[in-house]
Design brief:
With 460 residues, the chain is an alpha/beta fold. The chain has 2 domains: 253 residues, Aldehyde Dehydrogenase, Chain A, domain 1 (3-Layer(aba) Sandwich); 189 residues, Aldehyde Dehydrogenase, Chain A, domain 2, CATH 3.40.309. The protein is built from 15 helices and 20 strands. A 7-stranded mixed β-sheet has the order 12-13-14-11-10-16-17, with helices on both faces. A 6-stranded mixed β-sheet has the order 7-6-5-8-9-19, sandwiched between helices. Strands 3-4-20 form a 3-stranded antiparallel β-sheet. A hairpin with a 3-residue loop joins β3 and β4. α2 packs antiparallel against α4, α3 packs antiparallel against α6 and α9 packs across α10. The chain binds adenosine-5'-diphosphate. Adenosine-5'-diphosphate (ADP) binds next to α7 and α8.
């Protein structure tokens, strides 16, 4: 039997467990069961589906500490961040449970004395949900819970970097008598995911790299099924000269360095007006240097390790490329000395040019390139100088300018000053190569549904 070995990237890659990789036969069987279950689950009323999921939500809440610790061990994420994340994702489940009924209620489009027309939302069928490692529990919540609520059955594959979190999720999901085939998991790397999506499924829900997303989108096209894809990002943040510098530094820090810089929606390119450039860089340097990188399980730690050795190697290559091309390291720029693990110090880079990898690739780690601009047009052009279009941030005290720029930026979300877009009611997703479709909010539920129009005589 082939196994996935789970290691701790923050503790010299020590082995913390192992999980059997799903065989082709097991994948085929799970998809077949999901297909058998789809009629029962579709015909289970929405109210009943909500009732099935409520105790699952309660058990996730009571076992949140286990999720937090396992996430810290498997991914190197600081335990304090892991706790905050789990809490946020639990709130998201609550929002899903509380809002799915209104999101999917029938919608009357036209009515007169004789006839009535309405839209109803129906499940699509079997969803293959495939997730990355940066929010092991969170991505499960985002992908699996709304699919189950709208009536799709799910075969779930968590990232190969965090199979133990996957096992814990499977155990909890298995404790609540969901009908057989409504939810199941498969384990393994990309080959297992590929086998899964090539089976008889009706929908792909994927979060991960743009490269894999494009492969899945192609396959979805051939199979002629829907794919909801949330992919990479290289979010720009523009700081205009009238921004309140004191108030923005902590947000810039959090948006770039949260989860050690390993989120798709992170701020990845900082674009600062030349007149305040030095001041912003100096203040950010101070903020960064006040943070502690180290053992994720220590509650004093701000930044843990990266999730895997391969991520460290990739990041080192990106920074080396920048330095070779003339970038200046303001702080950081190296891994942590005397500790074995995938650690990298939070890093600020200036003297950035557009041929550098840190500018034109997604940087999934604690590295922030800062570039200056002269005019509003320059800033917009720099912000849009990316294949991605997930999110963006604008700091200015001029409301008209904020709206003008927000309109011209090519991204799925725009945050102006200190307001976050992260509310469960707000749809999330990207322009350009950041994805296809939206998650969360009313729109997020509807993305996972078939839309049917019923036009009928009025019955008397
Ligand atoms: P990352 O490099 O950030 O892990 P990937 O896109 O490689 O991003 O992986 C995200 C998820 O997609 C993981 O669960 C991974 O196993 C899975 N995956 C990778 N390649 C494929 C593929 N060709 N088909 C299906 N799933 C895949």
């Amino acid at each position: 039997m082939k196994k996935l070995i789970s290691t701790n990237p923050a503790k010299d890659y020590e082995v913390i467990g192992e999980v059997a990789i799903s065989t082709d036969e097991e994948i085929i069987e799970k998809v077949a069961e999901a297909n058998k279950a789809k009629t029962i689950w579709k015909e289970t009323s929405l109210k009943e589906r909500i009732e099935f999921l409520k105790p699952i939500y309660e058990e996730f809440k009571t076992r949140a500490n286990e999720i937090d610790l396992l996430t810290a061990k498997e991914t190197g994420i600081a335990l304090t961040e892991s706790k905050a994340n789990t809490n946020g994702h639990l709130n998201k489940i609550k929002w899903f449970l509380d809002n799915v009924e209104s999101a999917l209620s029938d919608e009357i489009t036209s009515e007169d004395d004789k006839s009535i027309h309405k839209i109803i939302y129906e499940p699509i069928g079997v969803a293959a949900v495939i997730t990355p490692w940066n929010h092991p529990f969170g991505m499960f919540v985002w992908g699996v819970i709304p699919n189950l609520l709208v009536g799709n059955t799910v075969v779930f594959k968590i990232s190969e970097e965090c199979p133990l979190v996957g096992k814990l999720i499977e155990e909890i999901m298995g404790n609540h008598n969901l009908p057989v085939g409504v939810f199941s998991e498969v384990y393994g790397a990309g080959d297992v995911g590929w086998k899964l999506v090539n089976e008889k499924i009706d929908l792909i829900w994927f979060t991960g790299s743009t490269k894999t997303g494009q492969q899945l989108y192609k396959l979805a096209g051939e199979k002629f099924i829907k794919a909801v894809l949330e992919l990479g990002g290289s979010n720009p943040c523009i700081v205009f000269e009238d921004a309140d510098i004191q108030k923005i530094i902590s947000k810039i820090y959090i948006k770039r360095f949260k989860l050690c810089g390993q989120t798709c929606d992170a701020l990845k390119r900082l674009i600062v007006h030349h007149s305040i450039f030095d001041e912003v860089v100096e203040k950010l340097k101070k903020e960064i240097e006040s943070k502690k990188t180290g053992d994720p399980e220590n509650l004093e730690t701000d930044l843990g390790s990266l999730a895997a050795q391969r991520q460290l190697t990739l990041l080192e290559g990106q920074v080396k490329d920048a330095v070779d091309k003339g970038a200046k390291i303001i702080t950081g720029g190296r891994s942590l000395k005397n500790v074995n693990g995938a650690y990298y110090l939070p890093t600020l880079l200036t003297n950035i040019s557009k041929d550098m990898r840190v500018w034109n690739e997604e940087v999934f780690g604690p590295v922030l390139p800062v570039i200056s601009f002269e005019t509003e047009e320059d800033a917009i052009s720099l912000a849009n100088d990316t294949i991605y279009g997930l999110g963006s941030i604008i700091f200015t005290n001029d409301q008209k300018r904020a709206m003008r720029v927000a309109f011209k930026i090519e991204s799925g979300t725009v945050e102006i000053n200190n307001t976050t877009h992260w509310l469960s009611c707000n749809p999330f997703g990207g322009y350009k190569k950041s994805g296809m479709g939206r998650e969360h909010g009313i729109i997020g539920f509807r993305e996972l549904c078939q839309l049917k129009v019923i036009s009928m005589d009025k019955f008397r």
